[in-house]
Amino acid sequence: MTDSFDGPPLTPPPERASFRDGVRFAFGTLTVLPARITRWDRPAARTGMACAPLAGLVVGALAAVPGVLLLLLGAEPLLAAAVTAAVPAALTRGLHLDGLADTADGLGSAKPADEALRIMKQSDIGPFGVIALVVVLLVQTAALSELYADSWVRGALAAVIAAATARLAMTLASRDGVPPARPEGLGAAVAGVVPRPAAAALAALATAAAAAAALPAGLPAAARSAAAVLAALLAAELLLRRCVRRFGGVTGDVFGALAEVSATTALIVLALG
């Protein structure tokens, strides 16, 4: 599989990017939703990656809608879960799953960094990539099925929290100090653009928002939602550090893997209890 996150090289940074520029960058880069990227430079990348969780909120909401409708029409939770899990893949053209498979192949190759990166750029998929895709999709569907079986509200909220947290993991991976593994692609475009204080503030805000959204269901539900976000970010951080050590930095494929791993972890925690 190729690194489908490749984009044009960044232009020299002009003035600060507006919030609208950042939203267009986030939606135009991380989703297939109509959003014309008006700027491709470091300031736009900085604002865009800070807006990544907002794109996740929209993707999660769009994923929850068909699942809830199927439940209301009498479908079983498993079918609703499968459709909900499929929507984010459709809204990203499968790029995050592609990145997960490529990263798994690169990490599992036991090759030096340059050869592992070459493997990740190839168009085929290896055994590690296949296993990663099967496990992640199976776990996501199983967790969502458990949640939908409890209530459509719990399942829908989980879909939104998981999608937003997945993009938040990308934001944190874009913080300063995280190098790119290649001189081109999304990794080079967004590596190191988000200041660490801003990344930490967004993580805290997302955790609090997830807890507040679940609070009507009680304090245990609120605590579980906050724990899901934190556990997902921890899993993504561990994978990020592994990839930086293994590849020398981040790539677009690594960002996709971080998104899928964090979303899956969040769904597992949310399905507990």
How does this model look, in words?
The chain has 12 helices and no strands. It is 73% helix and 0% strand. It is mainly alpha-helical and 273 residues long.
List keywords for this structure.
single chain, globular, disordered N terminus, 273 residues, mainly alpha, 12 helices
Q: What is the percent of helical residues?
A: over 70%
Rounded mean pLDDT is 91
Low-confidence stretches: 1-9
Terminal Cα separation, in Å?
A: 38 Å
The major beta sheet can be summarized as: none
Topology pattern, helix = H, strand = E: HHHHHHHHHHHH
Q: Strand portion, in percent?
A: under 5%
Rg, Cα atoms, Å: 18 Å
| Number of beta-strand segments | 0
| Coarse structural class | mainly alpha
- Helical run tally: 12
What oligomeric state best describes the polypeptide chains here? single chain
Report the principal-axis shape: globular
Keywords: Cell membrane, Cobalamin biosynthesis, Magnesium, Membrane, Transferase, Transmembrane, Transmembrane helix
Membrane topology: Multi-pass membrane protein
Subcellular location: Cell membrane
Function: Joins adenosylcobinamide-GDP and alpha-ribazole to generate adenosylcobalamin (Ado-cobalamin). Also synthesizes adenosylcobalamin 5'-phosphate from adenosylcobinamide-GDP and alpha-ribazole 5'-phosphate.
